[in-house]
Amino acid sequence: MEIQKITTALGVHSETGRLREVMVHRPDLSLQRLTPENCRALLFDDVLWVKKARQEHDAFVDALRERGVAVLDFGTLLAETLAIPEARGWLLDHRLAPGAVGVDVAAELRPWLDEVRPTGCRIT
Description:
The chain is mainly α. Helices cover 47% and strands 6% of the residues. It contains six helices and two strands. A two-stranded parallel sheet has the order 1-2. The protein is extended and about 45 Å long.
């Protein structure tokens, strides 16, 4: 499979134009790890109720779709990307660089992560 290059400039180019497509990430385990001590350092005003955040996220996504907006799920896109060997290799090369995670960690994790297959399912 050949990797396709993006030819359009990504970003918001109008404050008043019609939203056509958006990428979302459903609240997940990371929000369950917020504490009163770390939430402000992570730019949250307070600890969130994860179940309520998911409900509000799902309602928001439904409202976007009802208005014709294409909603892309980050987890699904990541799984599809990781299924492409060249893209997977690029990502692992950049995220598991010995200078970023340490030589020992990179040496141990890389062979294992090369074998793990993405499932394509959304983490809930």
